Amino acid sequence: MIAQRGFASSSAQSSDKLMVHRDTDYNNPSIPFEFNTETLKQAEEIISHYPPQYKKAAVIPLLDLGQRQNSGWVSISVMNYVAKLLEMPPMRVYEVASFYTMFNREPVGKHFVQLCTTTPCMLGGCGSTSILETIEKHLGIKQGQTTDDKLFTLIEVECLGACANAPMMQVNDDFYEDLTPETTIKVLDALRNGQPIKPGPQSARHSSEPASGRTALVSEPYATQHNVQEFA
């Protein structure tokens, strides 16, 4: 007798993001987009670094320029414009924009808050869990949401490479490290009010030196002591 083997399949998993484009009133090909004079100049400089037949290699930096000009996200019109500028099939640009998480394909707030919640940040200092709870409570939103005034968007991300300064978050291009619930609120309030706030560690330490103070390079360098000639 031949044993019968049942067929099993995994259940379909839903996602909060579609990998394919769906036209909306705020994101469709009929909405015009092109680089302004300053951005176009930057794009031309980037393209000049590549041989003419390989200028499509500039797709990532050009999408970044488009995202910056387009208030922090790449619409279908941005992608189509970059494809035309680089003379490459639009689908190739869509593939890049949908693969790299650095590109936002939906609108984000003025201050795009990316909170690291991986192991070092979860274990470091007061822990990223308390920072996440602090941000959500202070801004009145959950992870993946944008405030009603369009000032803040909050998402959780994988490691941002500042493990020695955990917990930390990235807001636009700046890192804010060594966070506590109190300093997190201070950063958010400063950003909301348009006040200057220094990036980097929000504690007393400099850069990523040990929290207890420096343990190396605490004396005058050897070259200085012995007048070793420095090479230009």
Automatic annotation (TrEMBL):
One of its GO terms (cellular component) is membrane protein complex. InterPro entries: NuoE-like, NuoE_dom, NuoE_N, Thioredoxin-like_sf. Keywords: 2Fe-2S, Iron, Iron-sulfur, Metal-binding, NAD, Translocase, Ubiquinone. [2Fe-2S] cluster binds at C116, C121, C159, C163. Coiled coil: none annotated. Residues 222-232 have a biased composition (Polar residues). Transmembrane segments: none annotated. It comes from the Eukaryota. It holds the Pfam family 2Fe-2S_thioredx. Its cofactor is [2Fe-2S] cluster. GO terms for biological process: mitochondrial electron transport, NADH to ubiquinone. Residues 194-232 are annotated as: Disordered. Binds 1 [2Fe-2S] cluster. One of its GO terms (molecular function) is metal ion binding. PANTHER family: NADH DEHYDROGENASE [UBIQUINONE] FLAVOPROTEIN 2, MITOCHONDRIAL, NADH DEHYDROGENASE UBIQUINONE FLAVOPROTEIN 2, MITOCHONDRIAL. Belongs to the complex I 24 kDa subunit family. This is Putative NADH-ubiquinone oxidoreductase 24 kDa subunit mitochondrial. It comes from Ceraceosorus guamensis.
